[in-house]
């Protein structure tokens, strides 16, 4: 899971724009060897859910100095 964001400041650092991605590798399940009978048992489990997939975000900030 990797998060990436870029930030740009404008208008003498009074306006800030941030855009980015969360969970860039789109990890949604985590496979584990514990609890399923071992690595060679073929347990058929799809793994433990750990994330919702990739999401995009943006943020606009204005500083009233």
- Terminal Cα separation, in Å? 37 Å
Class by SSE composition: mainly beta
As for the number of domains, it is: 1
Give the overall form. rod-shaped
Written as H for each helix and E for each strand, in order along the chain, the element string is: EEEEE
What is the radius of gyration computed over CA atoms, rounded to a whole number of angstroms? Answer: 20 Å
Write down the overall mean pLDDT. 86
Give a count of the beta strands, DSSP E runs of length 2 or more: 5
Unreliable stretches, pLDDT < 50, 5 or more residues? none
Instruction: Name the helicity range.
Output: under 10%
Strand content range: 35-45%
Number of helices: 0
Taking the sheet with the most strands, its summary is:
3 strands, antiparallel
How are the strands of the largest sheet arranged? Answer: 1-2-5
Account of the protein in words:
- With 65 residues, the chain is an all-beta fold.
- The protein has one domain.
- It is built from no helices and five strands.
- The model has no long low-confidence stretch (mean pLDDT 86).
Q: Which descriptors would you attach to this protein?
A:
single chain, 65 residues, mainly beta, 3-stranded antiparallel β-sheet, two-stranded antiparallel ribbon, 5 strands, 0% helix, rod-shaped
Give a summary of the structure in a few sentences:
By secondary structure, the protein is mainly β. The chain has no helices and five strands.
Question: What is the topological layout?
Answer:
Layout: E1 4-10, E2 15-22, E3 29-30, E4 48-49, E5 55-62
Antiparallel strand pairs: 1-2, 2-5, 3-4
């Amino acid at each position: 899971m990797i998060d990436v964001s870029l930030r740009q400041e404008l208008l003498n650092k009074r306006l800030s724009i941030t855009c980015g991605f969360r969970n860039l590798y789109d990890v949604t399940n985590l496979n584990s060897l514990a609890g399923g009978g071992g690595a060679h048992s073929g347990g058929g489990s799809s793994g433990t859910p750990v994330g919702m997939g990739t999401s995009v975000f943006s943020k606009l900030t204005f500083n009233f100095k």
